[in-house]
Structures are given as C-alpha cells and as structure tokens.
Design a protein that fits this description.
Length: 114
C-alpha cells in the first residue's frame, strides 16, 4: 500500500486543496472585517466579500481543467456549520436572546427528540 496514493484514502482522510482554500477565504474575510472595524467603514456587507471571493476562486479553478474542488458533507458539518453558528451567536444582541430564550429552549429540546 502506497501512502502517497490518494485513491486508496477515503475522502475524510484527505486534507486537500479544499481545506486550504477555505482557510484562505476565512483569513481574507477576517482581514476585511478587521480593516472595516478599525477604519469604522460602513461599506458593503462582509457577505458580499465572501460571495465575490467564491466567484473568483471558482472561476480560477474552473479555468484549470485538471483541478476540481469537491464539497463534502463532513467539510460542511465540521468547518462551515460551527463557524456559522459561532458568528451568529457572537453577533446576537443579548436582549434578543434572553427575550426569546423560552422559544429557543423549546426548539432545542423538541428538535433533539425529533
């Protein structure tokens, strides 16, 4: 068994180009947010920056016919979903959270049992 042969490894064992691209996009996003916060700029939304980066990267990788990025379920559940939930929870105002705490708890308990 050749450990350098990627065909023998499962998708969960590979740390490939997809992970590096995601980390690169995350670094650009954090840099943009830091720049915007330090300069107190009110230009655009940070989501637009991520969408534009996605367009540019998909165009770049589509131009190279031999390189294909594969989006896996484990990448979504281990990288995207926790960062999304953390960002939403961190940016939520405390009074909105505590005002809706009963509803949040109800959905959490009912959703766990379903």
């Amino acid at each position: 068994m050749n450990p350098l042969n990627n065909e023998e490894l499962s998708n969960d064992d590979q740390i490939g180009k997809e992970f590096i691209v995601i980390i690169f996009m995350l670094m650009i996003y954090m840099g943009f947010e830091t720049f915007k916060h330090q300069r107190q700029l009110a230009i655009g939304h940070s989501t637009a920056v991520v969408i534009l980066m996605g367009f540019l990267l998909s165009y770049f990788f589509d131009a190279q016919a031999q390189t294909k990025l594969i989006f896996s379920d484990s990448m979504f559940f281990y990288i995207f979903l926790p960062s999304l939930l953390f960002t939403i929870g961190f940016s939520m105002q405390h009074r909105h959270f505590f005002r809706n705490f009963k509803r949040i708890l109800m959905f959490g308990v009912v959703g766990t049992f379903i």
